[in-house]
């Protein structure tokens, strides 16, 4: 009875801790433990990626407005070719299982599908601008975040807490403030020829981007960043070449080349190449969802540049939306998102498991992990010590038994000798 009575309060306390876990964390909030150097580094790198996306948007807008060029496949082809020239050649120089021939033998069709998804995601979002408004693109493009969270929960076994959903809601409020600023400023909303088709293309692009980012996160954390970029560059170059010849051969042949056009194409290709090269690094430090939350500020950076380059009107809501999105990003990374380790991730490279520690967000440390989430394991050294102790015990028993038998035989010999006498 005493044991039962002592167990029942423990069960009540555990249920109360689960219900009030969020309040306890809020009361025990320590800014120094949350605002770590690793979180600051992830925030800075994420905003650097947003700046690269801003560069691609500005160069594309210059090509469209000043030179009347709309060649999304040609621009994507330049990016994939740069990836192929650098990372695919690196795979050729590798030996063993990391060589490109071994990779193609085992999983070529997976990278082919992944490259197809990535190419079409880039193409559909650019194509959507021809049919729908800028506001629709900015709002519907956020559809990538809930799709990412679902795919991360299903494929990567990521488990989100209430605070993560609250943080995502804060970031989406920031996007809403940005769209409201555009409407109040009466910014040019672009084409409205077929809004339904354009909105559908934006949603399709968001879903494709989510599939690509989740696959990228899995590959980077379990295999290799160079392998992912090299195979994407190889198959992406092939797919974009075929699609460019089919869809954009007339537009490409009609380009009037000049140093300004060449400079804009080069700037776009450099920004995309840097974005693809550095995104896996940031994704390995955090997660695909965290990276996409940080990329929400890219449109705001484009608006700031547009004030000086394209004479956009300024609104104070732009600053409000920037601050709100950054607050949501920090909130999302303040609490770890535990993952359930699967067999492939455990049997793969041990360095990735050591670096990640089964947690994606950098803002929280292992001390914030609850006992339910912490993986339990038996050290190998303890098992070896137990085996050695068992062997010692068996050898001691055997020696004692042999010693006793030897003493008994000596006593028998003495008795026999005395009887003979």
Automatic annotation (TrEMBL):
Residues 390-421 have a biased composition (Basic and acidic residues). It is a multi-pass membrane protein. The chain crosses the membrane at residues 77-96, 137-156, 163-183, 195-214, 226-247, 259-279, 291-310, 316-335. Pfam families: SLC35F. Keywords: Membrane, Transmembrane, Transmembrane helix, Transport. Residues 345-421 are annotated as: Disordered. It is found in: Membrane. Belongs to the SLC35F solute transporter family. Putative solute transporter. This is Solute carrier family 35 member F2-like.
